[in-house]
Design a protein that fits this description.
9 strands, 321 residues, TIM Barrel, 14 helices, Bacteriocin As-48, Chain A
């Protein structure tokens, strides 16, 4: 079984990939999407989203990172897939799952699930342009207007040569509202021979096992759950061996966030760094009472040093929970 860190626009950037993969349990990461339109993007854009390309598409601890593309023009997507490969990408992923209105309005992401034929054209074009030893994979949802397109779109992607298909267990209209419809992933998985990876609403070790049972998928992709609990992948791996590891303490989480902030400060202005820390802290409220305790004050802070001081201002209770 594999656990893949999901791409999350504006949050799961290279610094957080480095931070979370050091914790352990994550087998692969995927970059935020690189938007492909009519112009050819320069290499610096690929390096901006995937600096791991300078390290054989690996994080520092050796976890592979796939480069994700988003667009609707098969020819341009093919050219950018080819360029990603030439820059060192070891996997090219295609985004058919993004539910953002601005992305869908410009015919990118999940809206393409209304057109399985176009999805197939895009994947086939990229597959033809990318060297055969580099996997071309895709991420989708169960549909756009409803959850009726999972099987048809999965079959279209398989026919086009996708090496793996990640399915987020909701439609675009569902957004991120619970529940996740893992049973619909099972329907799509049973309709194709291509490996299917389940995604959506995995917050705990118990969620992983329920998802695996209902979807029939051995492999999962986790986004928000890994942001809320950085040691979730490690805990899931331990559970496979019948072990239960002590949960990460707040003190350990703060150390991760300090490392993350230091990495961000080499890339962004401080006001953006605090914004990213707040995003992470907001998710941590779901798993750590300490995060909930400091949230009212932390959300008002605009500078990095006071933010880090705020994070350390409460004692760790997680180990005793």
């Amino acid at each position: 079984m594999r656990i893949i860190l999901a791409p999350m626009e504006g949050l799961v950037d290279a610094p957080i990939r480095e931070t979370l993969t050091k914790v352990g349990g994550i087998d692969r990461c995927v970059t935020e999407f690189i938007r492909v339109t009519q112009g050819m993007l320069p290499p610096r854009i690929f390096y901006k989203y995937a600096p791991e390309l300078h390290n054989r598409s690996l994080t520092r601890v050796g976890v592979p990172v796939a480069v994700q593309l988003l667009g609707s023009d098969p020819a341009m997507m093919a050219r950018h897939g080819e360029q990603a490969a030439s820059l060192g990408a070891t996997q090219v992923d295609i985004n058919f799952g993004c539910p953002a209105k601005t992305v869908n309005k410009h015919k990118g992401g999940c809206v393409l699930m209304r057109e399985p034929e176009l999805m197939a054209e895009i994947v086939a074009a990229v597959r033809q342009a990318v060297p055969a030893d580099i996997p071309v994979t895709a991420k989708m949802r169960l549909g756009y207007d409803d959850r009726s397109m999972g099987v048809a779109c999965a079959q279209a992607l398989e026919a086009a040569g996708a090496g793996e298909i990640v399915i987020h267990a909701r439609s675009k209209v569902d957004g991120y509202k619970p529940p996740a419809y893992w049973e619909e992933i099972a329907r799509a998985r049973e309709a194709v021979s291509t490996p299917v990876i389940a995604n959506g609403e995995i917050w705990t070790v118990a969620d992983y096992w329920r998802c695996r049972e209902v979807s029939g998928c051995d492999d999962v992709m986790i986004g928000r759950g890994l942001i809320a609990r950085p040691d979730l992948a490690r805990a899931i791996k331990a559970s496979q061996c019948g072990e239960e590891i002590p949960p990460m303490t707040w003190h350990e989480v703060v150390a991760l966030m300090e490392e993350y902030a230091a990495a961000l400060q080499t890339r962004l202005e401080d006001r953006y760094v605090t914004g990213r820390i707040k995003q992470w802290l907001n998710y941590l409220r779901q798993g750590f009472s300490e995060a909930e305790q400091i949230w009212p004050n932390a959300r008002k802070i605009r500078e990095v040093a006071p933010m880090l001081a705020c994070l350390s201002s409460v004692e760790s209770h997680q180990a005793a929970a």
